[in-house]
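Check out a protein:
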Amino acid sequence: MPEKKPKEVNTAVLKENEEVQADEASKALLREFMDSKKFKKTLGIFDEEVPRGGITIASRALVRDMLVLQNLVDSNKEAPGKWKTLLELICNDRINKREAQESNIDSDDPEVYSKQLLEKIAERDALATELAAKTKQLKKQKKLQKEDAGKKQPKPGKSRKHSTPTIDDLLEAGPKQGKKKKREKKNKRDKSAPKRSPQGPDDSAPQERLGGPDDELKNFYKELKEEAEERAKKEAASSTDDNESESDESNTQPTTPTSAGQNRTGPKQADWIVEPTKDNDETASPHRTSPLPVSNDVMGIMDVAPTVQGRPIPTPSAKKLKEIICGAIRMPDPWLQQGFYYNPTIKYGLVQNMGGPCGLLAVIQARVVKHLILDKGLDIPTITEEDQREALLESLVDTLTVVADGGSVLLCLPSDVDITAGKVHDKILLDSWRTHTLGRNRADVRKTMQRYLSFFMERRGLGLMSLLVSAINTRGGPESVSSDMDGGAISEGSLIVCHQYSSQELVSLLLFGRAYSNVFDKVKEVGGMTLRGVPGPSPIGLLTYQEYTRDIEVGGFLKNPTSPIWTIWNESHYCVCFSKTQLGPEDGKADLYYYDQLGSQDEEYHLTVDGDKTAPLASQDDLTPYMDDILRTRTPWARATVSWNGSEPLL
């Protein structure tokens, strides 16, 4: 095989200003130094506190060129005691220059040297004193401004500019937030309004409350379950009918509430909303525009603007959803400004906007690769926009049906929030969202998801958050997800953990349908406790650096998935590695391809793993790419050599 040309290094940082370049170069120097000294835990903590991003420097050569260190590097190669890292090389060079400068002064006149040194010390002390005085003055001014701002705080309702509530305030306040006068008028109408008649939905009628918030939360999921069962019965009954006559009937008859809805009382009747399961929605005006962007007729679907109907999420359920998603912190911005869209160069690759939701994106990325590369056999030049949309649609449907595990899929979409690309706010009230029951039939789920595909593909929209909320509710709600977790060493009780990262429970939920904290096979009895792991074979696998450091155990179900695709967990970041051809569980040789959604890749990373060859034992001073260590956690590759085929290895 002809030798491949070295691949281009990501130089996105060079487009930034000098301050950003200096900052990124400093981080790269620190990462290289810590990796060289085998400070793995320190490096892991550093990556948590300073997450890698799209402009992160992963190339020693790029740092060398940015800081003009080529001469130093060349002279270091000729020196008897070579320095291993650029940081040590720079420090050694500055020390040598200082010594040379001092020796020059000393050789001329010791008295002059002493005088100049004292003058420099005096200048430095004066500068330090001046800076300390300015800092103290600025702190005092800031304190006074804060006190003045507290005195001039506007009254509630007078100005929205300085008193916009956070999501936590809105969720805590529940349905009482809003315009006070309108609420008072509505409460007066509610007292005199008659109870709801069982003729169908009427949004103007008041909702009766049965008990407290916990009762309302239980009723919500109970109703969704009843609705899913009713839908399943209808699907079973209609499966014996003639398909053509059923299709004609569905296109001519308006959708109406079922008898199940008519038999409900209290809040069940008030919550009953007709599901938009048919393409024709005769209750909507033909000129009505949907708040959600909809798919055009790219893949043979009607260009109809679907209405955001469905069942509203009650406030108690919204609170529980928010808690299971991110705990006590507010909804992180990276999770509210992320859709599923493609890399223009690596056409099978999705793009991550900011650090945080890499775990969720990596699972969808793995399924996209499966549909485009393994199932359809496409290569980068042959992938079309239609292929991309179809692969994303199948990946989203696969994810929700895996979570449903034979049950009904629930799709959750926003309604009363601005979801226009680039205008998503960092506050999102989940009880303004709507839940749609799509049923158990995959074709029905696909049909509805297809209508909303453009919404999911908005670059900075709410597509990613919508998938997460849908997966939680499809699993059975926050309580079901919470019961999956067994509070292990890596569990924090929420799906988004510190530094806005994806938890392992979130990845497990999307990967094999359960938010389990462990990734070994099946179950284990430990100290009288039953710990649950991966229930069975999975199409997508998982390999992690945490197993290399012996912190966790990955079982054979994820090490040997049915498709040669793995999500890669490198302490604080998830990405994807895959083979374009099928591999057996004992295959020791493989050509793998690495893709990082956050890496701004413009070329593929091609790695060759050869288990027939034995890699030499690494010394303490050797720089080993983390991917090499991760790949060697799989048994056939335990001592394999790993070649990056001319690419700069990612340290």
User: Anything to note?
Assistant: The longest strand covers residues 589-595. Residues 156-182, 188-211, 242-307, 416-427 have pLDDT under 50 and may be disordered.
